[in-house]
Structures are given as structure tokens and as C-alpha cells.
Design a protein that fits this description.
The chain contains 2 helices and 33 strands. The protein is mostly beta strands and 567 residues long. It has one domain (4-32, 34-565). Strands 21, 22, 23, 24, 25, 26, 27, 28, 29, 30, 31, 32 and 33 form a 13-stranded antiparallel sheet that branches. Strands 3-9-6-11-4 form a 5-stranded antiparallel sheet, with no helix packed on it.
Length: 567
Amino acid sequence: MSVMRARVSLEHNGVLTVIFRAISFAAALAFALPAAAQVYTIGSGNEAVIDPKPTVPAEAPCVVTLVQKATFGANAVNYSYSPTACPGPWASVVLQMNISLNAGIQFDRSGQLFLGGVPLWFGTTAEPNPQLGPSWNFQKDVTAYSALFTSPQSGFLQIANYQSPVYTSTITATATLLFYKATPKFPAPVTADMVLPLSSTGGMAYLFSPTDTISNTLTLPTNILHASADIYLQGQSGDEFWYTCVPTSLVGELGGCGGGALREGEVTIDGTPAGVSPVYPWIFTGGIDPYLWAPIPGVQTLDFTPFHADLSPFAGVLSNGAPHTIAASVYGDNSYFAATGAILLFLDHGTSVVTGGITKNTLQAAPTVNITNNIVQNPSTGITSGTLITTDTRRFTISGTVNGSAGILVNTLNQTSNFNNTQKIYYGPETEVEDITQSTNVTITSTTTTNGDPTTSSTTTLNYPLVVDITDKIPASGNITQITSINQQYLANLVTSSNGGPSVTSSSTNAITTGDSLVFNEFTGELIGNSNQSESAKYTSSGTNQACFSRTLDAMNSLLTFASTGC
């Protein structure tokens, strides 16, 4: 008896598009700091985004419209930006996006907004249905990119939306920048002096194998004190559900996608290992079962948060006047990842030339992955069961010097990453179960000493828990019942100190628990119905000198049933 694991895409039109991935018997298995805001109406079936707006001054902002009510097909919508309408300095700069779809049939789509080749937004859209056209808005703090807004730039907004007689829904979007003028009460913060694209093409790069890279080769200023990169790595196609994948050597036995269950961004400078960027398991609104994400989408689904990679140990190297290539690739890439990002440079304003180099680098080029395969196939019963466990631990230190106007700076990065993915499976004649428990825990400590004295220190802790439980009941009738529950979280904590002063803290939690039962025909793909749909989501944020925020949302049968805001 053959077994199959399948992926399902449900477009709310009562038909399931099934793309089978072989392992044995037939099942239908489908896997298709934030600042978004939404008006919540109890009983609404529209998309609900759970994140708060950025904290900004009370004064009205100066507004620059980048794109106004544009509709999207396969092509980008271009725009030009000029800073003359809202001159700086700014206390805060906020990107505001308004996106909507008309009722109809459509996939979730990836979208991105670029200015000067730098991504201001990268995320996906919500799926509509014939009765509901979702709309949402979000605000994103882009103050860190203030240097980008000081000169004229060209840009584009792209939400690749393909229409046909079947896929009918149109996407409309407006993008504006809100500039809040700096005042004595709200002074302009210290931000990067230069913001550059991570991609040499000034847009998205597509990585189809572990050897593909997103990169930019640049001759940079000769007075860099600190450097960093904001990196987005989004799994698509065979890598959309990379946390369900198995080692390529086991695909023949177990089926599914290859490349293993670990995906990790590898950052290099001139080919030398320079950092590790963990990959967040974003789930799109068409993923696994679209009813799981209506009306509340998954964590960061509509607005991704990049990983902030500290490259400051390389500041002296990058300042030597030679061209340098900053690049990122994806370990385990099984085709494919969409990648983009930005490079941020902080300069020494007291001199035009600094010197320095790397004094220590213990980062290995690739992770050491441990795989424990306890899965057993029993030909006499037709049952395949057991666990497949993938683990990896990364610990490294990179340290470098910068001899500048303030003396000798030593920038040191210490990072520890622990990854665990456990896949528990049972494939029998009438029942198939796949339970995935995954955790990524990262601790990053960056310190700077000046002439031997500590000046700045920051420790960032990131946790990415994910639990996916899927049970397929497969009677002889061919009507499969797929029961799914998911718990997904993004947990972040930051502690900083400067010149021996008191610590400043900031923490946030973005979490959702969702479940649904889906019934469809194994042979025709026809949707029979769904039941027991429920969602509960919570966002919290707190910290030194910032107001505490808490929002809770509940939904049942695709309608919002509860919303509360406040600590």
C-alpha cells in the first residue's frame, strides 16, 4: 500500500488544489519590532492585525505619499521620493500601509516596498473569499533608516498578483511616510549615517540552493565605527514549510521536501563567516488550512520583522578603502528563499580615516547538525511511525578593532543559537499524524570598549517556538478530515547600557494559537466543509521609558469574538 503526504492549497472556492509529495498512503497535508494596527469589530470576519502602533510625538506629522490607491498585477508600481516636503531632523519616521482586496478568489501574495534599493516593507497579503474582501492597515517604525530619507530616491511597491477567470480578486494599496519633526522634548535619535541595499540589484534576490547568495559589493567610507545588516529570509515553494522537511537522503523513504529541517542564514564578508541569521517560520494566510488564519493572521504574516545582524567587528576591515562583498545565503535551501535586506553604517565624525582589523573569529562556515532517526516502517501492517529529531548549537565570538578619533575601539559579538526540530509521525491505513515541535533560541551580546573601558553593551534574546499538530482521518469513502492545531510565537527581549549607566530594557511577545477541522475529498479535491475553527492571539510590549501595551484577540468560526487592549 503506497503512502503519500500531500500539500493542499485552499482558495475559498470549495476546491482543494492538491500537490502530492510521496511517502506512503494518501493524505492531504497542507502547509501554505512589529508595528501594525487595525480597527476591531466584534463579529467581523475581516483580517485582524494584533500589533500596536509605534510610539510617536503628539504633534501631527508631515505626510509624504509614495503610492496612492494603486492596483497590482505582476508589475511593480514605481514612485519618486523627495525630502523637500518634510525636511529633517525627525524624532520619528513611520511607514503607513493600507492594503485591501475585493471579495473573490485569490492566493496570498508576497509584497515589498523599496526605496533606494532598501526594503521598507516585506510581508504577505491575506486571502479573500467570495463573501469577504479583507482590508488592513499597519504602521511600521522606520526611524532607523532616517539617512535614506535625506536625499531624493526612486522606489517601487510590488505585490505580485496574478489574475485569471478563476483567481479574480484585485489588490489595492496605499503607502505613505509620516515624518514627526524633532523637538527639544522629542530630539532626533542617533541613527545610521548611511543605509545601503544588501542586494546589488536594489530589490529582492531569490536563492534556489545553499550556494546562492544575496550580496552587494561596495567601496565604503573609510571611517566606519559600527556596521550592521537587517536581513529578511522568506521560504517559498519547496521551502515554504521548511520545518516539515527531512534530510535529502531520507526523502525516498519518508517523502516530503529535502534539505533537512534546519534553515539558517549564513552571513559573510568577502567570503569570511561574519554572522548567523536564524530563519523565522512565517506561515502565510493560505498555509496548512486557510481557515486557521481567518480573521487573525499568523505571527508577522502581514509584516515581517528582519533579523538584525551586528557586523561591527568588521568595521576596521570595511574602512580600508577596498571593495568589500557583504553576502547572505541559506543553509539547507531546497528551493527557494526570497531574500532582501539593508546595510547600516555608523561613521566616525571626528576623522575621515580609521584603521583596524579582526582579532578573533571562531564562527564556522556551516552548522554542525545532529539528526536522530527513530522512524520505523512495518511492511506487514503498512504503518510508518517514530520520531525524527534535528538539533544544532552555534556558539561563536567575533572581535575587531577600530582606531579612530576617540582612540581604540574594540567591537565584540558573542552569539549562541540552539535549534531543535522534532517530527513525530504515524502513517497508518486510516490515520496519519504529523506533530512538529520546533524551537529556535538565540542570545546575542554586542559590546564596545574604548581605550579598554566599556562604553556600550546590548544583549538580545530571541525565541521562536512553533508547534504544529496535524491528524488526517482517512476513511474508505475518500472524504479526509484534517484536524490541525498550531501554536506559534515570536519572543524578543533587549537590554542595553551605555557608559556604565542604568540598563534600558524592551520586550515584546507576539503569539497565536489556532485550530480547525477541514473535510475534503481525497480524489477530487472538493471541499466538503470545516468546523471547530478557533483562534486566540496576544501581543504585549513593555520596557524602560515606554508605555506598557497588551492586546488580546479571540475568534471562532472565522468571526472575531473578543478584543481587549491595555495592560
